[in-house]
Amino acid sequence: MDHRVARKTLIIGCGYVGLPLALRLKEQGDEVGVWVRSQTSADQLVEHHFQELIVGSVADGNAWNDIHKTYDLVIHCASSGKGGEAVYKEVFLEGARMMGRHQPQARQLFVSSTSVYGQTQGEVVTEESAADPISATSRILREAEEVVLAAGATVVRSTGIYGPNRDALFSKFGKGEAVIEGDGLRWINQIHQHDLVVALLHLIKEGAPGEIYNATDDTPVTYRDFYAWCSDFLQKPMPPFGPVNLQRKRGVTNKRVSNAKLRATGWSPQYPSFREGLSADFHSPK
After folding, report:
1. Could you give the CA distance from residue 82 to residue 20 in angstroms, rounded to a whole number?
2. 113 phi and psi, to 5 degrees?
3. Positive or negative CA dihedral for 174, 179, 183, 188?
4. Are 11 and 32 spatial neighbours (Cβ–Cβ below 8 Å)?
5. If we measure between CA atoms, which residue out of 102, 72, 95, 93 comes closest to residue 10?
6. 29, 77, 118, 189: which could form a disulfide with 111 (CB 3.0–4.6 Å)?
7. Distance (Å, rounded) from C-alpha 223 to C-alpha 127?
8. Mind listing the pLDDT tens digit of every residue in the chain (286 residues)?
9. Is 0.85 topped by the overall pTM?
10. For residue 107, what are the β-bridge partners?
């Protein structure tokens, strides 16, 4: 008879990445608690019968005080919901502080972003590269990283996430709304939702506390080459060229993100480039 005690796991942010992650962990036998910001989100999760369902701001100390479980594993994979600096401070910085303060005994994973790399010359960046963010929101994210790293968390810097029902660039092209900015030679770095979820599951076991891992596919691509593939795949003309949008919340960076450190732990992406990922999503039943 198996007398192993189920691991108690808390997922902060049970959305596009957090929900499939929570369901996988539940299938593996974890007692999973989930945290969402709104009651609407909570209502959509009732059918999954998670052990605990917390609703509210992750920066709310009272909400943390209401948690009576001692978790073995806490994964912070909440999103900003396209919010600005105030939301970033609430969700990431204060959320990071609360996580360490209220569940200090737990193994912690914190999902960050490669927007913390501010490189602009097309450099290959690794976890050893300078992380001097350009934008205010990315600087807040970098500060949150330092908080969780000091507490022994594993930080996962994700590139742009795409997947089922989430493919902004591809959708813009399909709708005729895409524009190739500047000369089109700026680099895009992406990871499929499935591969990020698998990377997080993998790093629970193989990731070192206090370490940073870039989570991205094997194939950075320029905007020009991305849209050339879309043009061939959908048999539509290339988008027009236009000026560079300098108003992006995370700034205009240009770098190629390396996944070599994550790969060295034994992980590899099912979708090594956007080509395989978008093709699979496009042909799957909707």
Report:
1. 21
2. -140, 145
3. negative
4. yes
5. 72
6. 77
7. 24
8. 445 689 999 999 999 999 999 999 999 999 999 999 999 999 999 999 999 999 999 999 999 999 989 999 999 999 998 899 999 999 999 999 999 999 999 999 999 999 999 999 999 999 999 999 999 999 999 999 999 999 999 999 999 999 999 999 999 999 999 999 999 999 999 999 999 999 999 999 999 999 999 999 999 999 999 999 999 999 999 999 999 877 765 568 999 999 999 999 999 999 999 999 999 999 887 6
9. yes
10. 73
Cβ neighbour number for residue 286 with a 10 Å cutoff: 6
Give the domain ranges of the chain: 8-283
Query: Contact, 125 vs 80, CB < 8 A?
Result: no
AA identity, residue 136: A
Closest alpha carbon to 141 in 161, 104, 176, 113:
113
Strand, coil or helix: 160: strand
